[in-house]
Amino acid sequence: MRFPMKKTIVALALAAFGLSCGASAEAVNKAIPAPAVDTPAAEATGSQVAVLAGGCFWGLQGMFEHVKGVTKVVAGYSGGEKSTAHYEMVGTETTGHAESVEITFDPKQISYGQLLRLFFSVAHDPTELNRQGPDSGPSYRSEIFFASPSQERVARAYVEQLSKAKVFASPIVTKIEPLKGFYAAEDYHQDYLIHNPHQPYIVFNDLPKIDALKRVYPEWYRPTPVALTAMR
Asked: Cα angle at 76 between 220 and 192, to 5 degrees?
């Protein structure tokens, strides 16, 4: 989310009419099928990392910090060069970066495919092109940055599975590309949701993602988030 007042006004105006500025109701009000292709837990070793982009990183980080099996979530940028991985530069929409999260997880507790299931169903709306809610531009695009052939295989198979099943009324527009680099965002963005739970943008856009996780996938929800700032 950019700080200019205009977008804050948009969020508040929509909220006043009873509309959520986060993922669409279609995306958060129902469970979606589990991935038919996934990495077996028996083959997993050590911690793994998933990098996902789906709108403002405040909400993505806040939601995934409540997922069982996740051990750390960092807000940042991916898709562009290290030299342009700065908030104000990314906001120009010319860097190639997307606001992203780097999720460290225990694959024996939660699989990569299951993380994608949560990503597609409660974290964001995968049918919105270069936008999420009131935020627009390619830095808010939906994208999976795969870090291995296995992750690519699972991601592509899952998008094909959901598309063939017509799980969403509109086509999935999520991009799938190799991870070239992830760059942590500025400190003031980390755990922004935790530190600013009453900020209007958070209330109307991001807290509903956590509520949806708890409601739709209670088996994956944990009440206490794995706060990044608590690890420092």
From this structure: 65
